[in-house]
Amino acid sequence: MISSEFRAVLSRYPALSGFTSRVTDFLDAYVAGPVTEDAAQPPWLALRKRAARAGLTGFDLPCTRDGRAGGPGGPAEREAEAAAGGVPPDLRRVAQGLAMYLAGRRDCDAREVFSTGHGAMALRYGTPGTVRAVRERVVDRGELAGVASSEPHSGSDLRGLRTVAVDHGDHLLLSGRKGLISRVEEASGFVVFCKVIAPEQAAVLAVDGTEMREVPLSALWVPMDTAGVLTETAAPLGLRGWSLGHLYFDGVRLAKDRLLGAPGDGRRIFDAHFSGWRLMMALVCLGAATATIEETMARARQRSVGRTSLANVPSVASRLGTAAAEVQAATAWCFSLLERIEREGDGVDVAACSAAKALATDASYRAVDIGLQLHGSDGYTRHTPMEKRLRDIRGLRIADGPNDALYSVLAHSLLVGPHPGAPLVAQRRP
Ligand SMILES: Cc1cc2nc3c(=O)[nH]c(=O)nc-3n(C[C@H](O)[C@H](O)[C@H](O)COP(=O)(O)OP(=O)(O)OC[C@H]3O[C@@H](n4cnc5c(N)ncnc54)[C@H](O)[C@@H]3O)c2cc1C
């Protein structure tokens, strides 16, 4: 049994059924069941490389091999569709969401195996040279791209970032510290958010001063083998399949063509990318929660308490029903937003995507907590997947924007957005 909302998406887009079968076959071959902490952990990066050979890292490609965007119906679009393993260009985001949901059913750490991931920003906004290099590494070879936004003093507050790229005309010199961030050991390159400043500004701007807050954000593609990039790892509570830690940039010299978009385009790139990405992380968690509900229902049917099965205890059924309802509602919301992103592109509703990620990861966490409880002491051990899922989803309630901040984004857009006080639903006049 799989979430009926997942089935509903597939029935709306039968063109994606071959794609989901390929993802499922891949997972069946290499991550056959849910991962527990007690078992040997899958070799995640090696699996991503296998996924690249199976054509499962580039299906969401925003452009063709030579960097051209795929225009509707044109040869570039047909080339993009062929390269994307048959995923139609107008269904790339939905396909990515389906892959994330299926990955999450096996393990939250499987989230990095499929798609271009954060490499999509370099592929979408990079110069042709960057696009070619990132495509070869991240799509063809199955290497991993990371994103470095957070800094030790400022994770949620993007304007407070202090990493600077000093513009020396023909090159940039990048200095600063990022963390805590994912993939510091595995990624072969990072999209780094920073402030581009002139050398004379560097001399007068106090890095922690208010003037620095006014400098607009920029984004750079930084290959990890560039001289001056250093890493340091930390021990996370969950999501341990991929490293977490700090990146240090010690006067890293980068050609100007490493810029994504123009200087100052960073916030636009961040919002456009993270709206979709947050929905992907939401769907990873919803996949994990759905698997938990199914496993818990199977156990509740078999387990007897007194003369009846656990499933017949009204409060058990009610809690499982509540969890299933919340998870299905969040799944429907996430896919409906992905469909809007397919249609509207950059006109994406950032606030709704932010709140949907928060709602989905919170609902998933509650569902897994109920599942753990209904597995009794077994659920509290490392040989069921419940405790690992709980720790993993816990991380995704902070990563990619802490949930409380993301709910506030929706509230803010309703309170002071373009139409403050407008009803959420237009009423028909009597
Ligand atoms: C597992 C994991 C992986 C991560 N991976 C990456 C990565 O790959 N790249 C990257 O750049 N970053 C990454 N991060 C960092 C993450 O984006 C930040 O931790 C997050 O944005 C919060 O920033 P902070 O840790 O500085 O917390 P703070 O900004 O100090 O916030 C602390 C807490 O205060 C509350 N809070 C903050 N702001 C608000 C607000 N506006 N409204 C309401 N409450 C608020 C929230 O509860 C928040 O958790 C990762 C984090 C985790 C846990």
TrEMBL record:
Belongs to the acyl-CoA dehydrogenase family. The keyword Phosphoprotein does not apply. It comes from Streptomyces boncukensis. One of its GO terms (molecular function) is acyl-CoA dehydrogenase activity. Residues 62-85 are annotated as: Disordered. Its cofactor is FAD. InterPro entries: Acyl-CoA_dehydrogenase, Acyl-CoA_Oxase/DH_mid-dom, Acyl-CoA_Oxase/DH_mid-dom_sf, AcylCo_DH-like_C, AcylCo_DH/oxidase_C, AcylCoA_DH/oxidase_NM_dom_sf. PANTHER family: MEDIUM-CHAIN SPECIFIC ACYL-COA DEHYDROGENASE, MITOCHONDRIAL, MEDIUM-CHAIN SPECIFIC ACYL-COA DEHYDROGENASE, MITOCHONDRIAL-RELATED. Residues 264-414 form the Acyl-CoA dehydrogenase/oxidase C-terminal domain. Keywords: FAD, Flavoprotein, Oxidoreductase. Residues 147-252 form the Acyl-CoA oxidase/dehydrogenase middle domain. The lineage of its organism: Bacteria, Bacillati, Actinomycetota, Actinomycetes, Kitasatosporales. The keyword Aminoacyl-tRNA synthetase does not apply. One of its GO terms (cellular component) is cytoplasm. It comes from the Bacteria. GO terms for biological process: fatty acid beta-oxidation using acyl-CoA dehydrogenase. This is Acyl-CoA dehydrogenase.
